[in-house]
Structures are given as C-alpha cells and as structure tokens.
C-alpha cells in the first residue's frame, strides 16, 4: 500500500514537469528564448573552402579595383587595401550595414554581399604574402562576421550566412 | 600689332558688354590667337582674364538673366598660360566665385554654376569652384546646378546604377553653398564634378609623380544629387581612376589612392551612407 501511494505521489509530482517540457518542445528554440532565437527564420552558416574552379569564377566576375554599391540608409564601408592586384566588390543592400576591410596581401580578390539590416563584417589582415580569394555573403538581419588574419586555410574561404542573428568569428593564426 | 589690336578690341567688347555700374573687368592677352569674351549683367561683378600664348580662349558670363535673378557679387578669375588652353565660366545668381588657372599642354576647364531655368528669384546660390591645372592634356569641369549638369551614361557604372541616376530630376533646385575645388598636376588627368542640391561639397586632387609611364591616366569623377553630400578624392600615381555617384542626402565618399593602377567605383543611393577607400602601394 505504501508503495502504491508513493507511486501516486511521484506521478502527481512529475506530471507538471512533463507538461512543461512538452510545451517547451513546441518553441522554435528549445534552450533559449529571445527575440532573435524565437524568430521563424533559421540562422544558417556555412564556412567552406573554394576549389580552383570557384577561385577562377570569382576572379572572372570581379573587375580590377574596388567597386562599392550601397542602396539604403546608414550603410558604411571602410576599406583600406594594399596589394599588387586588387579585385574587390562590395554590395550592401538594406539599412545600417557595416563593412570594415583592412587588408594587405600579395593579391586580393574578394566579394562581399550584405543584404538586410544591421549586418556587420570586420575583416582584418595586417599583412600576408598569400594570394587571397575570399567571399563573404550575409543575407538576413543582425548577422556578424569577424575574421582576423589570413593563413593557408582561410586564404580561399567562402562564408555564407542566411537568416537572422548568425555570427562567425575566425581567428586565423 | 595684331595682338595688341586684338587685346584692345576684346577690352572694348568687354566694356560694352558690362552694362550695370560697379562691374569690373580686366583682360590681358599676349600671343597666338587668344580670344576673350566677358559679359556681365547685374551689380558688383568682377572678372579678370589673363592669357599668355598658344590658342587660348576664355569666355566669362556672369548673371545671365538679371531681370529674373539678382546676379551680384559674382567673381571670376581666369589665368591661362600656354598650349591650346580653353576656359569657360558661367555664373548666375548670388555670390558665386570661380577661379581657373591653367598652365601648359592642351588643358581645358569649364565651370557652370546655377544654370537655373524658371527658378524663383529667391533661389540662393553661394557656389564656389576653383580649378588649378598644370601640365599634360588635363580637363576639369565643374557643374553645380542644373542645365549644365550632366549625368553618367554608362561604364564604369552598371545599368541599374545608371537607371537610378536617370530617376533623378534635373534641374534640381534650389542651389546653395555648393563647393568644388579640383587640382590636377601632370599627365593625362581628367576630373569632373557634378552637383545638384544644397550644401554639397566635392574636392578632387590628382597628382602624378615624375617618372611615371606614358600610359598615365588619372581620372576622378564625382556625381552628387541631393543635399549635404560630400565626395573627396586624392590620387597620386599611375592609371588611377575613381568614380563616385551619390544619390540622396548626407552621403559621404572619401577615396585616397596612391601608387600603381588602382581603381575605385563608389555608388550610394539612400541617406547617410559612408564610403571610405584607401589604397596604397
């Protein structure tokens, strides 16, 4: 009898917990809750290395020099570049997007796209002797990429982020 | 003797053209097919033209339609020294100033300020523009106003960007406080500034160091439509080009290029956008 009563008590005691857990399962993000995590958009980040073909494609579609296009309000681009051959294309479409690009490389080919609001990219390399081919694409809001330094892995890197609130931080030693 | 007669005739023509009292004009011409034409309407206008040698030509108009616009306090200073130079200044409205100084080699400079069609008489116009060119096939043009205001028509801007520029209504008025100074030294430099709106600024400085290759072609163009836009370019080197097109208000573009064959294209459409580019080699 004692065992039966104990089982009943335990069942009553844990039933609210089970209910609460089940209710939490219905939320978009289980462990956290905020305006960003509760968004219907799913953040998606891909960091990959470009093969030779992708590098050639990137080089062919960007013309020499730096081309910057900003459509929207309060966008910022600060680019400080030093290389023997520079091919940089920047496209910011939205509001309050920011790009800080400070790079010294042997050659530099880079495509940067930010579509949405409040996106930020900070890419800094004091000096590298690599031929750099990079692509950074952010589509969504409140996304962030920080890249510091360049090494053999990151010199041909492509970073793509979609959704809201995604963030990638790269420290290339 | 022919030169003297030509100079005297030009001065007489200037004297006849300057209608209202208080206008001042001085033209000095020495050598080789020079021409000077100054027309001043309004009050307190001033014009100085000094030309020396080789196919120079200068035209200065100040206060084109004084019956419609109070054209006063305009100033124009043109100095040309050698080799097929041509200078043109046309100013209307209030308080404009324009100086052009050219030395050597096929230079040409043009300044338009407030070419306003059917604008109200209360339209302002505190425009300032001075251009300095020294050497080698340079061309510098400043349009601050309307009818002389050109738009980019193609490369290096994309078709979509040209479409945005075509969407801007020109003439854009009224005009106030536009500023443009352009300085070029050496090689085959080209500078162009076009501003429509109020309180815009444009500064272009191009310097090509000695010893650069023959294919030098520094080019810097600013197109700004809107209010309170600023564009600054400083270039020093070989084959540098820079093009800035800003549509909207409070946009800023600053480009500094030093060294070999850099290029920069900056396009902003909207408000309060900022572009800073520094390239060094």
Verbal overview:
The complex is a heterodimer of chains A (173) and B (281). With 173 residues, chain A is α/β, with parallel strands linked by helices. Chain A has 2 domains: 1-38, no CATH class; 40-171, no CATH class. Helix content of chain A is 20%, strand content 49%. In chain A, the strands form 2 sheets. Chain A has a 6-stranded mixed sheet, covered by helices on one side. By secondary structure, chain B is mainly beta. Chain B has a domain at 105-280. In chain B, 9% of the residues lie in helices and 48% in strands. Chain B contains 2 helices and 19 strands. In chain B, strands 1-3-5-7-9-11-13-15-17-19 form a 10-stranded parallel sheet. In chain B, strands 2-4-6-8-10-12-14-16-18 form a 9-stranded parallel sheet. The radius of gyration of chain B is 19 Å and the shape is globular. Residues 1-21 of chain B have low confidence and may be disordered. The A-B interface holds A 63-84, 86, 95 and B 156, 158, 161, 241, 260-281. Strand 3 (76-82) of chain A pairs parallel with strand 19 of chain B, so a sheet runs across the interface.
